[in-house]
Every structure is written in C-alpha cells, then in structure tokens.
Amino acid sequence: MFLFFFSIVVLMVLFAATHEQRWFKKILFYYFPQYLRPISHKLKPINIYFNQLTPEMRKDFNWRAYYFLDTTNIEFRHFNPTHLINFNAVRYLIASVATQMTLFLTEDCFDAFNRIIFYPDTYYSPLTGKYHKGETNPGAGLIILSWESFKSGFQRENDGVNLLIHEFAHALWLENKLYDYEIFSEPAFKNYERIAGQYFSEFGEQSNFLRRYAYKNKEEFFAVVVENFFERPHEFKKELPNLYTSVAALFNQDPTMYVNRGYFPA
What we know:
By secondary structure, this protein is of the alpha/beta class.
C-alpha cells in the first residue's frame, strides 16, 4: 500500500514538473488541445499575413502565439474606466506580432522576457530619470509600453514607426548578445553588423529613409531597421537593398513575399 501511494505521489510530482516544460505543452497543444486554454478563432485574423502561410506554418504560428501568451504576463497599469480596451484582442495582437517576427527563428526567442506592462501614456522610469514611450529591461525580464504610442504604431501602419516592433527588436538584440542561446545565426548577424556599420557611418543622420533616431547608437539603429523591415518592406528593399537583404537573412524571411503593403491591419 505504501509503495502504491508513493508511486502516485512521484507521478504527481513528475507531472507537475513536466507540465511547465515547453516540450510537454507542445505535445498537449498539438495532440490534446482540450487540456489547454484555446486561442479564439475570432482573434486569429488580426494578423493579415497568417492566411499566406502554409498549413504547417500556421500550426507553428498558432503554437508559438499560444506559448507566448501562456508564459507572458501582460499588465495594464493606471488605466481608468474611460479606457475602453479589448484586452484579449490586445494580448493576441502582441503575441501575433512576436510570433510573426520570430516564426523562422528558434523557439527560445523572448524567453528572457516574461512581463509586458502598459501605461496609459509616457511614463517615468526610475532607471533613467526620464519619461519614456517604451523600455526593454532584460534584468527584470520586462518590456514597458505607452498605450498611446502602441496604438499609433498600428493606426499608421506604413510609416516605419511601431513601438511594439521596436521594443521586441531590442529584446531580440539583447537576448542574442547576453544569453547563451543563439537567436540569430552568427554568420548572418556578422554580415548584418558589417553592412549596418557601413550605412551607419556613411549616411549618419542624412538618410531620407530611416528616421534620425536610428543614428543614436547601433542598438537603436537595429530597432528602427526592424520596424521598417516589417512595416514597409517594399520601400525598404527599394531604398536600402543591401541592408534589407542582410535583415532578411537574420530573420529567415522576406516580408515582401507575403503582402503588398506591410504586415498589419489599420
């Protein structure tokens, strides 16, 4: 009898331990979805390039979006009742963008960030002593966003300015630099750094395509480049073809092949 109860306890402990593992959740997602929180089918069309993917890519997209939502705590702070927000739609939009950016990269992307906090507008950061629209903090596993700036990034979909993509780009850059798992392939990243360095030094703030903020430092340059890569890929490819090709190699995708005018709905 003791062995029986001991075996039950061991099995329960093992189940609890494995239940938090990515591979275990992936098995459940693919073969036993009834044991997981489903993603509403009404939310999936938020990402307009989803239907351009192959059936296998769609499965992978859905899995990655689910796992992102399952492992990321998204908070809305200091909002009042006058802010009418469809929180579920916002959460899926965030997961959709994260998935779209990393669909052809390792599943480890964004593992170092498990919290996203929204403030109604610009917020004060005790780290910098300044007001910000967005912030990416790998030490705290945290991304902070201004709601007003977040919204404007999707209302003006083809201007190459999108706060969510910008901060996600910072997160990927930091993960690639700081942690022992590889976000981007080393040859592709070195090639990007070489080409980006040329544009950075030759154009400086004289570029008519990338906004001036890109030339603050190489980290901001990368974030602005990624914004343009996903929001207005056709224009980017035409204006800065070598840089565009290097970014396409980084992300293992070419957005111009999916849609005619960027990725996101107005």
